[in-house]
Amino acid sequence: MGNPGFQFPRLCATTEALLSKECCPVWEGDGSACGASSGRGFCRDVEVSDLPNGMNYPFSGLDDRERWPLVFYNRTCQCASNYMGFNCGECQFGLFGAKCEERRESVRRNVFHLSAAERRKLISYLNLAKHTFSQDYVIATGTYREMNNGSTPLFSDVSTYDVFVWMHYYVSRNALLGGPGNVWTDVDFAHWAPAFLPWHRVYLLHWEREIRKLTGDFEFSIPYWDWRDAQGCDVCTDDLMGAQSPRDPNLISPASVFSSWRVMCSRAEDYSVRGVLCDGNYEGPLLRNPGNHNHNLVARLPTAAEVEFTVSLRDYDTGSMDRSANFSFRNTLEGLGNSREMGMHASLHIFMNGSMSSVQGSANDPIFLLHHAYVDSIYEQWLRRHAPEQTHYPEFNAPIGHNRQYHMVPFIPLHRNIEYFTSSKELGYQYSYMLSSGALVLGALVTMTVAAVAATMTRVCWGAWPWQRREKRSSFHLPEREPLIISSDSDTV
Asked: Which sequence ranges are marked TM in the entry (predicted)?
């Protein structure tokens, strides 16, 4: 069987593929490119949208992610009907069987509802993925220009887990404009703009599928951490994501397998200074010191009332559709807005005070998966409650990478942002707390407190974040090497 690829399928990381700009591998099921002989798909020219992007990125032809994936490939497998994958050898999400005609629905459950055996299985699956080299994918360690336009491929082998760490780094990294220190920071193809939620939805779906294939457990689903009203890191226990080390509060307990994990792609500032990409080498232990963060940025974890207020917002995105979007569901859920404090999604990252607090390196911490599964469930609530038309998603003038028809970086096969502006039920999964009576709210109704929350959240929805008032070279990057992510006497992150 083929696989649901993303950058870079090993079969497309060759001199021949790069020089021909064609990524159309053979499907082993019939020996033809893209499974064409079986009608699964065909090798075709990539079509990209030419609608204008927002003004945040004023360049053209400098970054490999522009008009994705044309810098690397202008022909890829385009799969028919129910098929997907870089060679059309897989089924669309939620479909199974030899001809991808069997529809199944998985359920993502609260991590605290897992039995002791299920918790052990989750940890063993994560650890297996961390220590098993990916058979199908490699990571790019140089730009296309550094590859001499394809004649000198620069790729490295990493584990299945670390492929996803690299993907999250690559989509959010600074643009390299040429030479040490010459970078553009006001760019991110998966954050701070409309594609934030669709992109992470696809990311989790691919990660879930890779775990299923690696383990042979096709019943596996990512659990979520419901962090509403939590007083601390409830999942930071040795039977889950690892407790705090008694010897060093920045490290994981030696009783947890995660204490032996090493991180990669965690030194964003260093890469920018040197003008290079992450090379995939390990850079030190997994760091986490939850709760010992800058409390001026995050006073506490989000409440149930704040989640309800966020879901109540009608507009998916507003204004310039970036970090300054006012009363935008996406921006409020992402946790930005225009207050000195950060909320919702972003507050969890800051609260963890370690590897998870660097945007580019955050996927190194397995808590990232539980956290984003819950964020995705809030996105799902909003979709069900407001039932938006696809035209509700911005067609043009969003920051680069975020327009409706833009292909998500760095996925191959290609996914457009708009394709995942749809209910999880269409993609073959649901969340356990939404199964009864078509629930549209998170647990118990909290409407009695929404008015009070609205007054607080209004401060998050107006004004400007401190770094937005600075020059564009000042962006949201939280260096891994600083245990306390942001010093109390600086507003630069």
From this structure: 440-465
